[in-house]
Amino acid sequence: YTALYLLPQLLKHKSIYQGLKKTFPDVIRSAAFLTCHCYITCAAHCVLRRLLGHYRAITVAFIPSAIGSLATINIEKYHRQEILAIYMASLALECLYEMAVYRGLIPQLKGGEVVLFSLSSAVLVHFHRNKEVKINDTLDWMMSKLLDCKHQSKPAHQKYLVTRLRERLTDQIDLLITSNFSYPHRSDLCTHEKSCIAHTLDTGLNGLIWGTIIQMCLRLLSSGGSLRQVMRLFARRSDLARVSSFVGAYSASVVALECLFHKAGIKDITPALSGAVSGLLFAIMPEPSGPVALYFFCRAFQGVYKKLIQDKVIPEIPYDTVLLFTLSTAITIHTGVCEPHLMRPSYTAFLNYLTDQRYEQLDRQLINEVMKNTVHRDAPNALR
């Protein structure tokens, strides 16, 4: 939790001391939530077994996890409850999809994550540009960094070296374009100061830089602070460069398409169209990219839900965040315990680490007997 809370503070240019001072109480609170959740879930599992005298598929993990989630989610702050609910919802959707494919209910959808991200991108860019609804502070900050590229008003000596180089390069390109071509360099609908080409290049370079910075921070925190190890990782793994390339290409594509649509006289649906078409670039993301697409889909759905409530189309569901977290966590933990071959490997490793290797010591033979109509003993990658 320390790394999870400290990273956003560092990205917002706050000192490590200020970040630690602000995040320390949140770290203690989240650790208490996670500890209580584990204890109550395990206790509920044992109590249900004692009361019923036997196991049922739904009492192995689903109901105990739901009880643990419902009893402990209010330990967390409200904004953290929302973040957890959205994250667990994306995991639960992935689990349900894998269950449906494994049972032959639906076919494997090749390229489905690209379509999903494209639709999500259309919704998120539309809400960001029109300021119709505020989905999440961190998401809004990230969208602003990637799509709202503007020159900083600070003196040159107070700017980062990378920022100065990027601004100088795009200024020279803008000067070259405006001095050698006589056609209108931007539409009346465009709000940027430079020519459309220079603005697109500026935004793309900014996205590339931020994509690299975020990845390096994540790798640096996970590697224990070894910058040399992170640099070696970037040099050896091409998938990390592909992620940064996607972020840069996506940012440039959104603003370039907005300029093209503005020149064509299209205004109202420009953000949605630009986001949808640019979202197709998600195809260059390295595997596994499905979890990322699902997370942004959940964020887009959250935005639509808030917009419908804001416009009084639908009523707000009482305790919606608590109910979403409870249901999503129950589905995810049930999958991890009863059908581990369908669980995301990274989350399986997290459960094993969280339980001090006890997760992999579960009696798989007993669970398979309880779930004999659902989980097969020869399921691929099943923990035994």
Helix and strand topology:
Layout: H1 2-11, H2 16-52, H3 57-60, H4 62-72, H5 78-102, H6 112-130, H7 137-147, H8 161-180, H9 196-222, H10 227-236, H11 238-263, H12 270-279, H13 290-310, H14 320-338, H15 345-354, H16 364-370
Distance between the termini: 30 Å
pLDDT < 50 runs, ≥5 residues = 373-384
Overall body shape = elongated
Sheet-strand content, in percent, reads under 5%
Helix amount: 55-70%
Radius of gyration, Cα only, in angstroms? 24 Å
- The helix count comes to 16
Mean pLDDT: 79
Quaternary: single chain
Spell out the helices and strands N to C: HHHHHHHHHHHHHHHH
Number of strands: 0
Determine the structural class based on helices, strands and strand pairing.
mainly alpha
What does the largest sheet look like? none
Could you please describe the fold and organization of this structure?
The chain is an all-alpha fold. Helix content is 70%, strand content 0%. It has 16 helices and no strands. It has helices spanning 2-11, 16-52, 57-60, 62-72, 78-102, 112-130, 137-147, 161-180, 196-222, 227-236, 238-263, 270-279, 290-310, 320-338, 345-354, 364-370. The radius of gyration is 24 Å and the shape is elongated. Mean pLDDT is 79; it is low at 373-384.
